[in-house]
């Protein structure tokens, strides 16, 4: 128990250090942008005096480190700055977009895990037989399929040709119309989750095969314990340790992939927000979106890391 608390404590201590490092890196890289925030915020016809007044009011003429300290201080109060001529809040824009991105990422993760568990377990139980061979081909095809290419194909088939599912338009609220919300999210979720499902299938299949070859499985089966019971109670639980570790890395892919998928399907998430920031020269918006995505990736991986510690008893003795 003490080792478990110590290991979890190490992760929690490392969390603020990594967050501070990410804020520094994002702010440092964005400082190389040639876009003048004052010029982006004001009109093209703004006078030099108005531009200078804006820089003075927002501390843009301060030394770099002073601006960084001010930026970090604003994060503690939820202030990510403003963008556009109407001085819209970056935090408000990011908060609404982040909800959509997390919905897409979470659903893509659930879809990928369900498909991977079903395919991986079946492939392991029917090792080197025709179900295993078929699933191996399918999982390889999933891995080799880029999400953006699959998204375009599904739009052409399910939206344009068949007209079954929408590929664009406003995203309805789940609380107001769950059916319309699910229909709007189905194609993006499948496009995002298919490559992850393919890679996880291979990992689960390999992990299950390794567990099935261990002595305790043969001993349990020899003692008369039914195979489904052994697989469900022991083999499957022990085989999940490696896939959970891999899943932490795949979550980063899902978040990054969600940004691209949102642009293809015109979803009002972080992808559309960062595209707006780039196209309309809003460096503060790009900075805010990039920072929040990076922080979400770090926090989720810390959570997965601690979950791995809780599931794997052997690592607690390290």
List keywords for this structure.
2 strands; two-stranded antiparallel ribbon; 13 helices; mainly alpha; MetI-like fold
Into which percentage range does the β-strand content fall? Answer: under 5%
Proper CATH architecture of the largest domain: Orthogonal Bundle
Number of DSSP strand runs: 2
Tell me, briefly, the overall form.
globular
The helix/strand class is: mainly alpha
Estimate the mean pLDDT confidence.
81
- Provide the CATH superfamily of the largest domain: MetI-like
The number of domains is 2
Fill in the CATH topology of the largest domain: MetI-like fold
Q: Rounded to an integer, what's the Rg over CA atoms? A: 24 Å
SSE order, one letter for each helix or strand: HHHHEEHHHHHHHHH
How far is it from the N-terminal to the C-terminal residue, by CA? Answer: 12 Å
Query: Tell me about the biggest sheet?
Result: 2 strands, antiparallel
The low-pLDDT segments are none
State the helical fraction.
Answer: over 70%
Task: Provide the spatial order of strands within the biggest beta sheet.
Answer: 1-2
- What's the CATH class of the largest domain, please? Mainly Alpha
Number of helices: 13
3D structure, described in words:
The chain is mainly alpha-helical. The protein has 13 helices and 2 strands. It has a two-stranded antiparallel sheet. A hairpin with a 4-residue loop joins β1 and β2.
Topology record:
Blueprint: H1 2-30, H2 37-41, H3 48-57, H4 64-76, E1 82-83, E2 88-89, H5 90-125, H6 130-143, H7 147-161, H8 178-212, H9 215-222, H10 227-239, H11 241-265, H12 270-279, H13 283-311
Antiparallel strand pairs: 1-2
Helix pairs in contact: 1-13, 5-6, 5-8, 5-11, 5-12, 5-13, 6-8, 7-8, 7-11, 8-10, 8-11, 11-12, 11-13, 12-13
